[in-house]
Amino acid sequence: MTHLITEPAQDGREDLDSYRARGGYAGLAAARDRSSGWVLEQLQHAGLRGRGGSGEGRPIFEKWQRVAAAAVPERYVVANGAESQAVSQKDRFLLARFPHRVLEGLLIAAHALGARETYLCVRGDSPEALAGAEQAVAEARAAGLLGGVSVTVQPSAPTAVSGEETAILDALEGLEGYPQPKPPRPEEIGLRGRPTLVQNVESLAAVAALFRLGPERIRAVGTPACPGTALFTVTGAVDRPGVYEVPHGTLLWDLLVRAGAPPREEILAVLPGGLGSGPLRPDELDVPLTYEDLAALGTTMGNSAVIVFRRSDGALPALVRENVALLSRGSCGQCRGCKEGHEALLRALEAGDLAEARRRAEVLLYGRGNCALPTGTARFALRALQAFPPAAWS
């Protein structure tokens, strides 16, 4: 299998010497020898797309370009490793096992954007990820690799909204850590009112791979629209749960087979992108893992947490109610519509009123609030109501 972001032969945490023996930080040196414009050109040519939990897959180049274009002397870069859902482990896995790959990407971003102050945000309830990040920063500092850039490892609150980009900035400013309205986006007005790049840690590790291997090597893997590889957490009813790196465009079913999923006839549903993604039926599992192919089925790559539900674990109505209840508990309570919309949807589902449930999801949740939680809940519920036949709800 192709690995660009991780190293399958690595046992335990990859320290600085091990990473440098594999070409680590050579990409950073190459970037620092060239202009920020050259770095942006390489990003654009490679076509890398963001791997954050929104599942939008926006081109990384476009986000960096907006920060770089701001006519201000001060910018910030924030590495987002604050995964909000426990089912997603890929970012924690990267920081615990391959933290230097994230750090190199962070330093390349700092060079490209002229940032002297950066932050590496990690879930506060993930001690292995925190230790990995702190050790990597200490090793890089001792080796003189930071180049005058300040890197602060910042633990984040273990809440369902702590990984939202504006919530991270809110917390870094000493506030409650709540998601904020957008626009403006952080690339325009971010930390302390300055343009700020908030980039998922997997995205930064992919950037490090790009500058280590070159854009042609990245584009040789995956699909033309989704070059490279991606990390997926596979969990639920599988024999070999864990984090897998596969090329974009890999069939979902092939990934599930690697993880030891049961036969299709034993599967009730699969969530391809975490709790807020639309569930797929067993006959839909041959979908390629790209943003566009999943969107065409009314779902999303989300946080790349693939959850498998077995028929013997319960019926569809119970699964939908339990997942909506779980998502509801993640509401921070800041947006009244989010809290009340979740409660109304759950009441309709408990009453078995599917028409009312659909209306509640469409009117009260979809596109509401300052973060993606209400839209994710609506997406999950609406896709379940649309994709599964009436007999499945009885």
Report what the structure shows.
The protein is an alpha/beta fold and 394 residues long. The chain folds into 2 domains: 16-219, Rossmann fold, CATH 3.40.50; 229-388, Ubiquitin-like (UB roll) (Roll). Helix content is 43%, strand content 13%. α3 (36-46) packs across α6 and α13 packs antiparallel against α14. The longest helix is centred in the middle third of the chain and has 16 residues, at 127-142.
Q: Work out the helix count.
A: 16
Termini Cα gap: 42 Å
Relative helix content: 40-55%
Q: Give the number of domains.
A: 2
Spatially, the strands of the biggest sheet line up as: 3-2-1-4
What does the largest sheet look like?
4 strands, parallel
Strand content: 5-15%
Q: Describe the global form.
A: globular
Order of helices and strands: HHHHEHHEHEHEHHEEHEHEHHHH
From the alpha-carbon coordinates, what is the Rg to the nearest angstrom?
Answer: 21 Å
Question: Could you write a compact summary of the structure shown?
Answer:
The chain is α/β, with parallel strands linked by helices and 394 residues long.
